[in-house]
From TrEMBL:
Protein name from the UniProt record: D-alanine--D-alanine ligase
Binding site for Mg(2+) 1: 262, 275
Reaction equations catalysed: 2 D-alanine + ATP = D-alanyl-D-alanine + ADP + phosphate + H(+)
Cofactor section: Mg(2+); Mn(2+)
UniProt xrefs under PANTHER family: D-ALANINE--D-ALANINE LIGASE, D-ALANINE--D-ALANINE LIGASE B
Metabolic or biological pathway, per its Swiss-Prot or TrEMBL entry: Cell wall biogenesis; peptidoglycan biosynthesis
A Pfam family this chain is assigned to: Dala_Dala_lig_C
Active site: 23, 155, 286
PROSITE patterns: ATP_GRASP (PS50975), DALA_DALA_LIGASE_1 (PS00843), DALA_DALA_LIGASE_2 (PS00844)
Organism encoding this protein: Alteromonas aestuariivivens
Gene: ddl
Cofactor: how and how many bound: Binds 2 magnesium or manganese ions per subunit.
Amino acid sequence: MSTENNVQNFGRVAVMFGGESAEREVSLNSGTAVLNALLRQGVDAFKFDPAERPLTELLAEKVDRVFIMLHGRGGEDGSMQGALQQLKIPYTGSGVLGSALAMDKIHTKQVWQSLNLPTAKYQIADKSGFEAGSCSAIMRQLGNEVMVKPAREGSSIGMAKVTSAKQLETAIQDAFNYDNQVLLEQYINGPELTVAVLQGKALPSIRMSTPHTFYDYAAKYQDNTTEYFCPSGLSEQQETELAELSVTAFNALSGSGWGRVDVMQDADGNFYLLEANTVPGMTEKSLVPKAAATAGMSFDQLTLAILSTSFDSAGVSEGA
């Protein structure tokens, strides 16, 4: 089909962004970029912010499909996907199960671990039963350098890297402000890489380098000191290995359509899976557009490719 025919087949598209999660500002930036790209290509698209309008207005708007650009809870955790399925409106990306699993870092690791996929050692801190006296033992078990992560937040919100039991206790209490469960993960000393997955295939990997302690919120969105390398500098064999691992890891979580898998590489060249994102950022600093560009795909072409994943929405009738 030609691009013109593809655009006509999409019908009326609601680009859903904003929302009420801690990642609202990032979502607003991502959604605006996507909406502008779709409009440039003649798609009948408009903004829909669920923080400002009830979902039932999608029916009044006679929407044919939704391009989900909500990051974090309420948009990336399966709840919005389930609501859209109830309304029988097709949407982009992963379904209810894949979205819910990938949003929860602890369940993500448990799935990967059950399949013998490589991931760093970890412990879980639960707000209802956390004992500060356990911090010294946790530090020893995880190698004395530990990443602290709220289980269900994105964009590095609430995360910290610690090197002492005292720091660990403080970081866990801070993370409890965002979630009742906190992932405590062995720190892998080496480069961080990410692999975008689009329609079942991996795009070229990206290596991130930042002067920050880790690739935190500021490094991702606020300052210009982060460097991105795509190609990432891996050997051809390593690039193939990482691509296969990333697709396998994404599929293991029932991910579909598009997404991103984050990975660490240790000094010996071994890869360790960190987490998966089912609605990655689409801002000018975002990683998926960078990988797509290296693969020869423009930002506009990428948005159409993602929008086309709405034809595969699980459990949604196209005739609705």
